[in-house]
Automatic annotation (TrEMBL):
Organism encoding this protein: Robertmurraya mangrovi
InterPro entries registered for this protein in UniProt: Emycin_Estase, Hydrolase/PRTase-associated, UCP036794_erythomycin
Source organism, top-level taxon: Bacteria
TM annotation in the entry: none
Name by which UniProt lists this protein: Erythromycin esterase family protein
Gene3D superfamilies the UniProt entry points to: EreA-like (biosynthetic domain), EreA-like, domain 2
Pfam families, alphabetized: Erythro_esteras
Amino acid sequence: MSESIVKAIKAEAKTFEGIKDLDPIIDAIGDAQYVLLGEASHGTSEFYTVRSEITKRLIKEKGFQFIGVEGDWPSCFKVNSYIKGYEEISPEEALSAFNRWPTWMWANEEIMDLIIWLKEHNQGKQSSNVGFYGIDVYSLWESMDEILKVLGDNQSNDIEAAKKAFSCFEPFERKPEYYGVSAAFYGEECTDEVVQLLLKVRENKHKFTMGPEDSLNLSVNSLVTLNAEAYYRTMVKGGPDDWNIRDHHMVSAVEEIANYYGPGAKGIIWEHNTHIGDARATDMVDEGLVNVGQIMREKHNKKVYSIGFGTYKGTVIAAKKWGEDIEVMPVPEGVEGSWEQLLNEAGAEDKILVFTEENKHLFNQTIGHRAIGVVYNPEYEHLGNYVPSKISERYDSFIFINETKALKPLTMRHVYV
């Protein structure tokens, strides 16, 4: 089987040497409304820089209007305010909003270059301004703070209802794990209060017009509050529920943003391969897991185009344990029989595979595909860092960078807060 796959890669892959070599992917994207850009780690420079180049081309050539990333809404909205000129701040100040571990995912030099480009692109434009948003679910307390700020700035009568709802969380000292244990095992949950608040805020959001994008900011922070409460409540119990809540939330956040931009709005989504690659093409489905890629395909079908990324060897930024200082770690050569090893065997050059109805069957075998998270130990990656995947069913295209280097964080020391 390996020989036939290597032969197919040699026949179907296109060499990737620079931005012009992205043409086959840009052409294949066609009229898609949502483009999902993956990564095989949260700490690889080339994954960020290549995604940036694709993003720029989609904005310039196909009129894409917003970027949604695997980050917190409040922190990313600071970047959005910078690139749209809502706040006169430096790019460093914008990225300093990422002050909660793992900060390096977005506070890095590669993202710095992109947001400077986005600001320059937006200058002088009105309705065509491109936005930058976080679609993840983790910012429970930060999102509650933002809701109170928007309601206060707008002198809303709903602010007292919000304060009452949020008072339910006060005993937990802004510690999600405290709330999760208390809600899951002792019945001390804040569900009713948050649901009522969300309904009230969404009902009245059209009234909030004093600040740029206030209605969107309020709507998504309310959605985060609701879903983060459910996420932390289920997380301590184990099982697939917390993962599924998180990925359903990310899709809902994308849809909120798209609705804000109007009918046919076009968005680019940056997330790990494990989120944007269709879960049905992996062993995730056996564990009862769904993900953004699957949900988006089910809801929007051909309007979605997903691009996976991978590497054979190199270096990466990660930490040995959650919350610890990060370091540059080696990425070992792909294990024998993995997609990474087979792609390297077909030639050590960087390459692109565009999957079509004619060639998909050549790459639909279930084979291990590397996934590196923010916590990583290269010595043990063979024990759990390979996701069995039918690569041509998981993605619409795949970009393979044979040897990669570590992401460049704005600081090499991070404190978990």
